[in-house]
Amino acid sequence: MTNPTEHALPANSTVESREGDFGCTVMDLRKLMELRSTDGVDQINVHYGGVMNLCSRLKTNPVEGLSGNPADLEKRKQVFGQNLIPPKKPKTFLELVWEALQDVTLIILEIAAIISLVLSFYRPPGEENKQCGLPVSSPEDEGEAEAGWIEGAAILFSVIIVVLVTAFNDWSKEKQFRGLQNRIEKEQKFAVIRNGHIIQLPVAEIVVGDIAQIKYGDLLPADGILIQGNDLKIDESSLTGESDHVKKSLERDPMLLSGTHVMEGSGRMVVTAVGINSQTGIIFTLLGANEGEEEEKKKKGKKQGVPENRNKAKTQDGVALEIQPLNSQEGIDNEEKEKKAAKLPKKEKSVLQGKLTRLAVQIGKAGLIMSAITVLILILYFVIDNFVIHRRPWLSECTPIYIQYFVKFFIIGITVLVVAVPEGLPLAVTISLAYSVKKMMKDNNLVRHLDACETMGNATAICSDKTGTLTMNRMTVVQAYIGDTHYHQLPSPDVLVPKVLDLIVNGISINSAYTSKILPPEKEGGLPRQVGNKTECALLGFVTDLKQDYHAVRNEVPEEKLYKVYTFNSVRKSMSTVIEKPSGGYRMYSKGASEIILRKCNRILDKRGEVVPFKNKDRDEMVRTVIEPMASQGLRTLCIAYRDFNDGEPPWDNESEILTELTCIAVVGIEDPVRPEVPEAIAKCKRAGITVRMVTGDNINTARAIATKCGIVTPGDDFLCLEGKEFNRLIRNEKGEVEQEKLDKIWPKLRVLARSSPTDKHTLVKGIIDSTVGEQRQVVAVTGDGTNDGPALKKADVGFAMGIAGTDVAKEASDIILTDDNFTSIVKAVMWGRNVYDSISKFLQFQLTVNVVAVIVAFTGACITQDSPLKAVQMLWVNLIMDTFASLALATEPPTESLLKRRPYGRNKPLISRTMMKNILGHAVYQLTVIFFLVFAGEKFFDIDSGRKAPLHSPPSQHYTIIFNTFVLMQLFNEINSRKIHGERNVFAGIFRNLIFCSVVLGTFISQIIIVEFGGKPFSCTKLTLSQWFWCLFIGIGELLWGQIISTIPTQSLKFLKEAGHGTTKEEITKDAEGLDEIDHAEMELRRGQILWFRGLNRIQTQIDVINTFQTGASFKGVLKRQTMGQHLDVKHVPSSSYVTVAPVTSPPTTSVPAAVSSPTLGNQSGESVP
After folding, report:
1. Cα(first)–Cα(last) distance of the chain, in Å?
2. Residue 653, SS3?
């Protein structure tokens, strides 16, 4: 392994002399962090004389932290580097221009234009024209003939425009992603102790020597060594691939690595390596070095495709890097996840992409066939007319003239192709998504993966957390049961026995994370601010309400004095802290879910504060009279208890022995009020055909009460509210495996899942997504905030993480971050998602009308009059309007509430509905009728010269100018019609809310006037009179009236209309296509149209065999390499266990890929796994 430090630390050479100021160098610390467990402990003790000594060498105080002196921090950054991993260099504008030039259609046009240019300068002597059998040109045509070069030049010019527009779009897209990435990274903060105060510091500001506070759910931002830890367990699978959680302690393994997740416990560490010197950074740098070589190879190979924007958005927050082996314990899911990350954006995630891909391929094929036929007919007609009918000999001096004709025919054919292929489609999708993402930011949705935004529009189910999403996450204790008395209002401190009061205050103050605290309100008269865990803040608030001071207790018992801490986790559902008693022995305080703690209590404090036995019947009585009434009012109940150990030290590691025989001090009821705007938002979801389910860890009664308040369940409904245990009993067979048939009986009616574990949540989400009951397959969105929600968020079609309460792990697994943790923001996301879908349908309706008309006109015109009524340059202009400008205008329509009044489209609804098909064909009929009338009878109607059968370099005619002008104006008014796709009559509704649309339509109209009046030869136009202009406008406005006629025809009566752009049908997705195979299924889906989708016709050129992910235009080398890899591996499905075996088939043994790297910064363009 080469050491990447040379280029990692630019300041290295000058730094050497100053590193003496600290007791160790960058390299010493890097070497230290490469050691694991006991080796690390030995090295710290032998070489540095213990952790405390290491801290003093790094000039930091293990309790107070760094002083925060700017000069000191700057010096540390110089010596040890910054906590940043430099991002990959973005593509320059010129590189993007070069990429856009690689488009096949454009290349063909360029070649044709150049040939046309060259030939136009060749002037044969006049008399030979007769021999060549071509019309003799009059003297005034000579000047025109001189200008024959203009057409070629104009084509080249329009090609340049198209290329620049494409490159600019790619460039701005890339820029947006970088902005989004920076925003995600800036938002990641970490708790660091500076000058004795805990502050939240942006990750990039952390320096070597900082003392960082770590807790459950954190993603470690730098390497460090543990100074003090409570029950700390870390998931290091992202670096080592070991899926078991690693226990960290000072004695056994104090090494903490960046990019790993804290799964349990809390503690403090001293930062020893940051940025490119951390373990993650080293891997990044190595990959960066490899990538340089890869790039070189690729440059020699075929061109590289579109930048992999989708993946760029997936850069880990800050620095996390996911490298996971294939045999991890989460089995299929993890493997699926990693495979997806390496190969595809996500499983058959984006419903829209699949449909568009299929549609684009179909249109492309049709266009190719049409253009080929056009060229053939033109050439055959010319040859037969000249050499067969008129029996002229082929004269060598005429050859250049004949070639000029052939080039002209070729240009016409290519033009048909250019118009037929909807290259504006990817542009429309990009613009629409980018626009939505920008606007969603204002609606508190931070979109991390672009396609999540559009998938959200298809969502049919939302599985939401309760705390913080549906409720305000501002908890307060409102009831208490202390000493045989149920207080419905909080008791005053004098009512309580001093001994009991003392136990309550200590039990709460000591047994809660010291990071949870209550600060004075920001504004006068506001509520006190709760910092840290909200449940603990509620308890601390209870202490304050009892006129006691929890700070005093914490100062007396600082964190260092805590003997042992069993931190809260989803299995325990409780937290316990052990302290040494001054008189000897130990006391343990516990708190947790009341039914769990009460089961472990065998004594309770009575009215006088005396300990009395607490039997099973007492417990049942208490549940009936205290806990259930509290829960039915929507309160969360917590129990506070303690236990004394007086005879020697018990076996602390044996939890079941420690957490028993507790003495109950009190039970409190905590209220977390429902957010006022939630019931309305849930009602909107119901109207929009989306089912909301609540999945919570709370007691079933509490959950039911809150669900009723929110409107998720209404009294008298036939819906299920289950507890996790009951849910599992109903869906699993004797062997304990989940059975889809059993699950299918439960989920349609399930509305509340209480006391659920993260696994239950994952099972439910997976079950709903995999289910094939019901008329359409479900698209599921999930919200989550805890570390344990990761798997469910990953599995869901769209994962929402909470921006405020969410842990880093949850954010990492999510697609969208809710910056205000509010359920109403999810409804906004649905609205935006549906809007994206509709915008693209609007664009398609407009684009396909133009395509159909332009292709038929060019084709029939060419066949009948040997010349397309619309010239190459004119077609390119039409192409520019309908592609670039129309996609801008139609893709930026703002969403309206009416979007929430229809049911979701679901996975298999076609993109082009019957109504849209009716509009497309209806408008095409109108436009074709008008244009053919103008082509064949226009000269009589307007009383002008006919433009048909004009000689080669003849001047532009008014006749064909009128045709071009009318055609463009019809498109312009049809663009207004295209604003509505569900058959609405009022196409102007809300048109002024979209300024972009208005300016595009106006801008196009003004440009059209300029082109017709001043375009001259390059645009094959000539000036028109005012009356001719009015006729053109009148015919254009006729589009709007015709639109009204079309919308009166009921779609139902047109049975013959087919829909187009279907999603995947049910039959295609069989049960076993889920799990791992579904990746291949998605790949087959995307294989068909990938590159056409991005750039016109490359797809057809390479014949639809090239596999590639839809949004990453990768190098073909990589593609083929992966194709062969795919042929070597046969995927066997093992239904019973959650593992997947990958067996080599009839091929030399393929080495298994140890880790799939899912991080865009690795820049592995072709998406192959990195061995």
Report:
1. 14
2. coil
Strands 601-605 and 611-613: antiparallel
The residue behind tokens 């499905």 is: 1133
Q: Tell me the DSSP string of 924-951.
A: HHHHHHHHHHHHHHHHHHHT----TT--
Spatial separation of the C-alpha atoms in residues 486 and 668, rounded to whole Å: 9
Distance CA 418, CA 573 (A): 63
Q: Specify whether the CB–CB gap between 1067 and 351 falls below 8 A.
A: no
Would you say 33 and 273 are in contact if contact means Cβ atoms under 8 Å apart?
A: yes
Q: Rounded CA gap, 749 and 131, in Å?
A: 85
How does residue 1113 score in pLDDT terms, banded at 50, 70 and 90?
very low
Q: Is the distance from CB of 666 to CB of 504 less than 8 angstroms?
A: yes
Quick: pLDDT tens for 369-395.
888 888 888 888 888 887 887 777 777
pLDDT digits (tens, 9 = 90+) for 174-188: 776 677 667 766 777
CA distances (Å), 271 to each of 187, 203, 250, in order?
Answer: 20, 12, 15
- CB neighbour list of residue 87: distance below 8 Å, 6 or more residues apart: 178, 181, 315, 1161
| Residue pLDDT, tens place only, 323-349 | 333 333 333 343 333 333 333 333 444
Which two tokens mark 163?
């290329």
Between residues 897 and 311, which one has the greater pLDDT?
897
Query: Torsion-angle region of residue 1127: left (phi > 0), alpha (psi -120 to 50) or beta?
Result: alpha
pTM of structure: 0.66
Exactly one of 465, 789, 815, 883 is catalytic; which is it?
A: 465
Q: Enumerate residues 6+ apart whose C-beta is below 8 A from 249.
A: 226, 229, 232
Cα 852 to Cα 919: distance, rounded to the nearest angstrom: 12
d(CA 591, CA 505): 12
Strand partners, 213: 268
pLDDT at 663: 94
DSSP H or E stretch at residue 213: strand 211-215
Tokens of 51: 């952790």
The one-letter code for the residue type at 580 is: E
| Residue pointed to by tokens 């589009």 | 1039
Active site residue 28: no
Average pLDDT of the residues in 152-158: 71
